[in-house]
Structure to design on (82 residues):
């Protein structure tokens, strides 16, 4: 698992962040994107309900997060949120 995450991280380095802007993942549409200190990509999204959500690109790409929190019913995967 850890190795897999590292490999994903390396791949993400090659993503042009600008191309992420405007992409839609479930209810979240990316408005801003930037790299964090761990070489992950952070995104600020606008949810379908009008609220903003900030988190990792990985979370929305893997559909672990599909809304700002207003629609937990559509989240299929459990776990990860303490
Ligand atoms: Zn929402």
């Amino acid at each position: 698992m850890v190795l897999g995450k590292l490999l994903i991280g390396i791949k993400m380095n090659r993503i042009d962040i600008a191309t992420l802007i405007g992409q839609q993942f479930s209810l979240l549409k990316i408005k801003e994107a930037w790299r964090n200190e761990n070489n992950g990509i952070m995104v600020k999204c606008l949810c379908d309900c009008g609220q903003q959500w900030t988190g990792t690109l990985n979370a929305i790409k893997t559909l672990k997060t599909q809304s700002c929190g207003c629609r937990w019913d559509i989240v299929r995967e459990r776990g990860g949120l303490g």
Remarks:
- The first strand starts at residue 24 and ends at 25.
- The pocket of zinc ion is lined by residues 47-49, 51, 67-68, 70 (CB under 6 Å).
